[in-house]
Write a sequence for this structure.
């Protein structure tokens, strides 16, 4: 019987694999034994798919995928799956329109997230807005995709929308940055009454002294509403003599004031160890972008980019991961305060 409840509907056909016998019993996440679930050259003209987001849709699953074209320019592609593991991709990139129905394609687009709020599906990505910033679009049928106003000025990345309004407003996580591969970065929260005007900015949490997130952090999958608070999988970055290493971390945010961190795991939940995480176009990357979760069983499937070359899948349960985060929690003053100065 689950003690930690996921607030939300059931997804009985979600991808799932019980913990393999050879998986670490002291860690709350375990990898799918058939990883990676998306390999190289997945569709004509696309060399690699990674850092992508999926969601239950109709009788199966649908996703927005970072497709690195063979010319090196990233765009977002649509994919569908019956089981959340085997994917069919549309050959052409998603055809974004403006609100008048005219073509309005970004210069480039990468690291998308996909979240449903009140029957509308919102896509967020990083793009060029005279500098790296956040692009957004909406759809109700995955046939027409209407771009909406960019929420922030450059420079910003890692936009993650909460799956419901909080205190009447949309709530968005982001990571203000600079124009390059940012050597710093904290997670902030912003609110909007209409998905156009954003304010009430609050600091959520920053990098920590722990080695695996000592350079910067950023939002990952959309927060999962649980009986303990908002469960957030995010990425933490450290620096080595051979470049950055991206690991997956976990925290629990206050349900009504999510700029307040209730619990934050001092240990990573997943770090590059397998060949498809350590070896690729950008080595040593595990980058979470989406979860599928089942309110009936507490099961959680986490989709993550691996080495900027593949998509991997990991599993856990709400009980296991929340218990682990709470047991290994270290919350600092800048985490637990409201985030307003």
């Amino acid at each position: 019987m689950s003690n930690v409840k996921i607030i939300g509907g059931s997804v009985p056909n979600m991808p799932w694999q019980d913990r393999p016998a050879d998986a670490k019993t002291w860690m709350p996440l375990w990898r799918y034994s058939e990883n990676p679930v998306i390999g190289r050259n997945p569709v004509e003209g696309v060399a690699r798919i990674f850092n992508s987001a999926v969601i239950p849709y109709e009788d199966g699953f649908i996703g927005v995928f970072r497709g690195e074209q063979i010319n090196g320019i990233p765009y977002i592609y649509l994919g569908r799956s019956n089981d959340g593991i085997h994917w069919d991709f549309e050959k052409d990139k998603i055809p974004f329109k403006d609100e008048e129905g005219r073509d309005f394609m970004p210069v480039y687009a990468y690291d998308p997230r996909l979240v449903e709020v009140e029957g509308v599906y919102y896509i967020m990505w990083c793009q060029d807005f005279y500098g790296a910033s956040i692009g957004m679009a909406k759809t109700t049928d995955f046939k027409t995709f209407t771009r909406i106003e960019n929420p922030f000025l450059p420079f910003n990345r890692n936009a993650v929308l909460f799956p419901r309004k909080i205190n009447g407003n949309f709530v968005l996580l982001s990571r203000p940055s600079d124009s390059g591969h940012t050597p710093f970065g904290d997670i902030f929260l912003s609110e909007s009454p209409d998905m156009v005007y954003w304010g009430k900015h609050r600091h959520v949490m920053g990098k920590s002294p722990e080695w695996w997130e000592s350079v910067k952090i950023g939002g990952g999958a959309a927060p999962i509403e649980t009986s303990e608070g908002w469960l957030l999988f995010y990425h933490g970055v450290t620096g080595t003599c051979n470049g950055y290493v991206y690991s997956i971390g976990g925290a629990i945010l206050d349900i009504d004031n999510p700029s307040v961190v209730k619990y934050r795991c001092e240990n990573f939940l997943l770090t590059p160890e397998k060949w498809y995480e350590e070896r690729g176009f950008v080595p040593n990357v595990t980058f979470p972008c989406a979860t599928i979760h089942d309110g009936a069983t507490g099961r959680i499937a986490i989709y993550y980019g691996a080495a900027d070359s593949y998509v991997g899948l990991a599993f856990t349960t709400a009980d296991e991961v929340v218990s682990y985060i709470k047991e290994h929690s270290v919350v600092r003053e800048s985490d637990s305060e409201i985030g307003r100065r």
About this structure: The helical segments are 275-278, 318-327, 333-336. The CA atoms of residues 80 and 243 lie 34 Å apart. DSSP finds three helices and 22 strands in the chain. The longest strand covers residues 46-57.
